[in-house]
Design goal:
By secondary structure, the chain is α+β, with helices and mostly antiparallel strands. The chain is about 40% helix and about 20% strand. It is built from 5 helices and 5 strands, in the order αββββααβαα. About 25% of the residues are buried.
């Protein structure tokens, strides 16, 4: 019986060590210029986002955010992670976006910005995770099928 008790104690020690090692440690990831970089995706849009210390200047494809995303709703979507983290005027954001439409591009920049903020300040991860900004929205357009007008729509039926 003592051999069984000893193996159970060993097993208990092993599980105790495993639970300590299981907790991930997030560290700051910066490049040589002191910027955090991340890629964000939404629909068919892909955004590359760089975050650095600054005064709140946001540039997208070398244009100001108000000229690139003219609709206030898109600007609001883009700034949601900064508002949630309460870091509105503390970072300069530079992004390049390709593919998709304006709505998808705004979502892609928001996703990339959230990831880059967690790389710059790892303690913001819990706030951004609760807001759902770190999760990639996996919904994409369904492909068109053969014999259909669109993905699911059939051609109009006529008896004649």
């Amino acid at each position: 019986m003592t051999a069984d008790a000893k193996s159970l104690e060993d097993l208990g020690n092993l599980t105790g060590q495993a639970s300590e090692a299981a907790a991930p440690v997030h560290i700051q990831k910066l490049d040589a210029q002191g910027r955090a970089y991340a890629t964000g995706k939404r629909k068919n849009a892909i955004a590359r986002v760089w975050v650095s210390r600054g005064h709140g200047k946001i540039t997208i494809n070398d244009k100001d955010v108000t000229t690139y995303f003219a609709r206030p709703v898109l600007q609001m979507i883009l700034k949601q992670p900064l508002v949630a983290a309460e870091r509105m005027d503390q970072y300069d954001i530079r992004a390049t976006v390709t593919g998709g439409g304006l709505s998808g591009q705004a979502g892609a920049v928001r996703h990339g910005l959230s990831k880059a903020l967690t790389y710059y300040e790892p303690e913001l991860r819990t706030v951004l995770k609760k807001g759902g900004f770190l999760t990639r929205d996996s919904r994409i357009v369904e492909r068109k099928k053969y014999g259909k007008a669109k993905a699911r729509r059939s051609f109009q039926f006529s008896k004649r």
